[in-house]
């Protein structure tokens, strides 16, 4: 009787979900040639191709789709059997992409609290430009992306909501009404920075980037010292005791849109639970 080794099926599922032989090899702790060899052996045992060589990237043949769907079920049963003897199951790694504006926020603590509900999961968290993170999500290289937009996104997301943005300052802040506005910012792909710059330009004002950092602690210290003004969501200002400049001699700011996206395909139960948890936690911030 022919038996298909589960390691071959696990390799096929990894290649399919990550859409990359290289990334599958890294996740499985083997070399790329080993992954290629396992796929070839699987196809030899089955007697047909599971990957469509005529399509770009990693694509499944119609039979390959059936194999992958059944492989996931078989591997799930395999892991449940292992749990009976070891008391544990292999943990799931959730690959999360976050915007630069959240790199220094309380998000790490939120992720750790979520793990109390799913103790067997672990994270791989990275930050980058929104376009790149959404591309990685589509290609299966990320499982969940938290993104910020200056306008309501047109692409489908699991959650979308608006946040009020405000100018923050300190008693030491001084602004020349005829000169450029001194900005404190995350820099780079920061959505809050884009909102600030666009609002100033619409009002005919220029700006200088006087303090740029990826550390929220450093940015808060710069604002408190009077380096300049900064744009943040009102909830973050309240939580970090930043002084909102309600009557600032600066242009009115538009809302900031937050969105949470999850990847297509595979078992998304824990990923969707995490998306719902993140939305609840972020929306629960004071002033949101």
Task: Describe the protein's architecture and organization.
This protein has a five-stranded mixed beta sheet, with helices on both faces. It has 288 residues and is of the alpha/beta class. The mean pLDDT is 86. It is elongated and about 80 Å long. 42% of the residues lie in helices and 18% in strands. Helix 1 crosses helix 2 (21-28). The chain starts with 5 loop residues before the first helix and ends in a 5-residue tail after the last helix.
List the uncertain runs. none
Strand content: 15-25%
Task: State the shape.
Answer: elongated
- Number of E-type strands: 10
- The structure class reads alpha/beta
- Helix fraction bin: 40-55%
- Could you give a short account of the major beta sheet? 5 strands, mixed
Strand order of the largest sheet: 2-1-3-10-4
Ends distance: 62 Å
Mean pLDDT: 86
Write the H/E string, N to C.
HHHHEHEHEEEEHEHEHEEH
Rg, alpha carbons? 24 Å
- How many helices in DSSP terms? 10
């Amino acid at each position: 009787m022919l038996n298909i080794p589960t390691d071959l099926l696990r390799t096929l599922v990894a290649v399919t979900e990550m859409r990359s032989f290289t990334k599958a090899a890294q996740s499985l702790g083997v070399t790329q040639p080993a992954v290629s060899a396992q796929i070839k052996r699987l196809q030899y045992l089955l007697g047909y191709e599971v990957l469509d060589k005529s399509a770009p990237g990693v694509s499944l043949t119609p039979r390959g789709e059936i194999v992958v769907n059944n492989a996931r079920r078989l591997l799930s049963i395999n892991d449940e059997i292992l749990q009976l003897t070891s008391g544990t199951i292999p943990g799931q790694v959730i690959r999360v992409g976050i915007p630069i504006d959240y790199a220094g926020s309380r998000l790490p603590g939120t992720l750790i609290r979520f793990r109390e509900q799913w103790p067997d999961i672990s994270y791989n968290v990275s930050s980058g430009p929104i376009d790149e993170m959404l591309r990685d999500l589509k290609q299966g290289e990320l499982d969940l992306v938290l993104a910020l937009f200056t306008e309501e996104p047109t692409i489908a997301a699991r959650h979308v909501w608006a946040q009020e943005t405000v100018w923050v300052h300190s008693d030491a802040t001084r602004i020349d009404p005829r000169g450029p506005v001194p900005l404190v910012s995350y820099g780079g792909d920061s959505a809050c920075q884009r909102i600030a710059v666009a609002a100033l330009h619409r009002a005919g004002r220029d700006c200088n980037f006087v303090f740029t950092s990826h550390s929220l602690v450093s940015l808060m210290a710069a604002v408190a010292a009077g380096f300049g003004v900064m744009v943040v969501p009102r909830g973050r200002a309240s939580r970090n005791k930043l002084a909102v400049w309600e009557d600032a001699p600066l242009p009115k700011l538009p809302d900031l849109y937050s969105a949470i996206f999850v990847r297509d395909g595979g078992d998304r139960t824990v990923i969707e639970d995490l998306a719902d948890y993140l939305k609840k936690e972020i929306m629960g911030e004071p002033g949101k």
